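Much of the work behind modern protein science is quiet bookkeeping, done one molecule at a time. The fold becomes a row of whole numbers, each drawn from a learned catalogue of backbone shapes. The protein below has been through that process, and both of its lines are reproduced in full.
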Amino acid sequence: MLFPEKLRQLRAESGLKQKDIAKKIGVDIPMYSRFEHGERRPKREMVVKLAKIYNTDKDELIALWLAFAAINEIGTDKLADKALIYLREELGETPVSAPTEQVAVSAPVVEVKEQPKFNIEIPTIDPAKQNIVKQLGNSPFPQYYNGDALKMLSRVEDDSIDCIVTSPPYWSLRRYGAESISTDNIEEFIEQIVAVMGQLYRVMKPSGSLWLNMTDTYQNKALKGLPWRIALRMMDEQGWILRNDVVWDKQNSAFDSSADHLRNTHEFIFHFVKSDDFYYDDEELRLYFNNVAEKKAKEGKTSSGVTGMKYRRNVMGSTALSEEEKKNALAELDKVVAMVNGGEIPDFRMFIREFPNQVMDSKSEKAKSINEKGYYFLLYNKNGTMPGDVWNIAPANSPVERYNVFPESLCHLVILSTCPDGGIVLDPYCGLGTACKVAYDLHRRAIGIDVNEIYLAKAKEKIQQQPLSLF
């Protein structure tokens, strides 16, 4: 077992997350992740700290660290066998003649695992240079920054962003000019995206949300599962909490001449948070997907005249409710009926205990109410039911050839539902700036980052064409 494997084993046994260990030793989460995957070697004093945190033998951990360093240097070299002989001699072991072409000398078998090929440089976080949010201040106009996403994010303050809406470049497809990620190697592409996601975790508030749009791709006739490979690493290595995997049904797709797989008409949009206390306003989602006002107008339905007589009969004829429970149930029924007739709610359902001494095992609100009071009221939301996780929204037309654009309606939904009024929206791959433009329209502040100056110029034009958005 080598040093990276030992770190993974110790953390698994401790029950701690990577973010917990990273904080204790003073590095960010992506950097600690590289320690566990053998992409970086921590300093010796950091190994001592890790041994203390994991309550393990310090000397053993340092020895594994040293062995890993040696393997990195000579393990895959064609002269490794010869180097091992010299090393044993230096350590006082019995000398062994160096191998010649005529005599084969067996060297100790050392299991060497192939080391990761990619070493994504994570910028050092200097608090003195973290000023992007400070520079934004209370300005209603989006601020755009030209540069690499990973480097520019090092200038964003910790826990400062309310909502992140972004769509990283497509792997090996979006080559319409300068792109933030241009590698043809799919593993390196994943590494670069995951590194950026680690920085986004750092800059997002505990109450914030990340909406990550990713599409999949084929390589050698195989669908690669890119969105999920990235999402799983975010959860396992960085501590992200996945709230929803939304299937974005684009309702159309580009021409596809393939005859051995189905046309692709969807992409994934992942909703991530970093704590269970996140901002969420479901009203806009309900209104958009249910078309409540439009449906009522077409159907000509009104809530006036509701009596709840059916439920009254059920309560009065029940043998499972006590007289006191019946009295309370009828009194609350009168209040709920008044709410419907007053237009506060569109409708309701009432459930009562089915037989004497019934105890429901479920931990739901319904079960708790029936166990304690003998009845439960399900009040319908005036804006309709909560929408599902398949969204039928057509993509927007793009002013740039062969460039997909987030539809404004999609950005509108996620920003209104997860970014408070006056909050800050960030898009680290902002492209033509749709998310920033929608944030501006909705009285949210916005920060856009992109490596392509042409895209940023077009993004700024969108705002210049708009009237001043006042808070």
User: Anything to note?
Assistant: Confidence is low (pLDDT under 50) at residues 95-115, 174-178, 296-304. The longest helix spans residues 323-341. Residues 206 and 275 are 6 Å apart (CA to CA). The two ends are 59 Å apart (CA to CA).
